[in-house]
């Protein structure tokens, strides 16, 4: 088992992660992790020695239970924010548009993921792309990205700490 790329200090936590955008029938797949009260994209940490492409495929298989291919690299985001535990976060995340290799339906579903010994409840929801502004989706800049028809954004920096 490889180590996830993250650094924890008193002032900041750092994480290197990947996120997968899965769109089917104009609906976006989002997840509420452990009843957090907000939705985010499926994804997770990149492990030491792993490419971001391999990481996003692995994370979606672990979380969604289906195999996916990468349709398109969308961009990278440097994000600075306060997490749900009131900790300052510095995150670098690679975003990919993903297409399922296996059939996937657009019914909401729940999975209990065993993530290196920690059980995480994942409530997946399919949200109509025209209704994303009606939901608490994090990171908050994601709604802005979804408004871009081709979804490409290259390199963005969002700092909610200033």
Distinctive features:
162 residues; mainly beta; Nucleoside Triphosphate Pyrophosphohydrolase; 9-stranded mixed beta sheet
Characterise this structure:
The protein has 162 residues and is mainly β. The protein has helices at 52-64, 142-146, and strands spanning 6-8, 12-24, 27-33, 43-45, 68-82, 88-100, 109-115, 118-128, 154-159. A hairpin with a 5-residue loop joins strand 5 and strand 6. The chain is globular. The protein starts with 5 loop residues before the first strand and ends with a strand. The model has no long low-confidence stretch (mean pLDDT 91).
Shape: globular
Q: Name the helix and strand elements from N-terminus to C-terminus, one letter apiece.
A: EEEEHEEEEHE
Structural class: mainly beta
Distance from first to last alpha carbon: 37 Å
CATH architecture: Alpha-Beta Complex
- Count of individual domains: 1
Mean pLDDT reading = 91
| Sheet with most strands | 9 strands, mixed
The fourth-level CATH homologous superfamily is Nucleoside Triphosphate Pyrophosphohydrolase
Runs in which pLDDT lies below 50 for 5 or more consecutive residues are: none
How many β-strands, per DSSP?
A: 9
| β-strand amount | over 45%
How big is the Rg? 15 Å
CATH topology: Nucleoside Triphosphate Pyrophosphohydrolase
Number of discrete helical segments: 2
Estimate the helix proportion, in percent.
10-25%
CATH class: Alpha Beta
């Amino acid at each position: 088992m490889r180590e996830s790329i993250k650094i924890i200090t008193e002032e900041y936590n750092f994480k290197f992660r990947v996120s997968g955008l899965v769109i089917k029938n104009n609906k976006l797949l989002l997840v509420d992790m452990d009843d957090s009260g907000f939705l985010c994209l499926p994804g997770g940490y990149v492990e030491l020695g792993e490419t971001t492409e391999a990481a996003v495929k692995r994370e979606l298989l672990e979380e969604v239970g289906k195999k996916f291919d990468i349709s398109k690299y969308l961009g990278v985001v440097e994000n600075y924010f306060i997490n749900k535990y009131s900790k300052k976060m510095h995150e670098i995340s690679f975003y990919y548009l993903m297409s399922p290799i296996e059939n996937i339906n657009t019914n909401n579903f729940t999975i209990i993921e065993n993530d290196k010994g920690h059980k995480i409840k994942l409530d997946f929801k399919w949200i109509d792309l025209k209704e994303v502004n009606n939901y608490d989706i994090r990171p908050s800049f994601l709604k802005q990205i979804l408004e871009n028809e081709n979804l490409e954004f290259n390199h963005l920096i969002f700092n909610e700490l200033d």
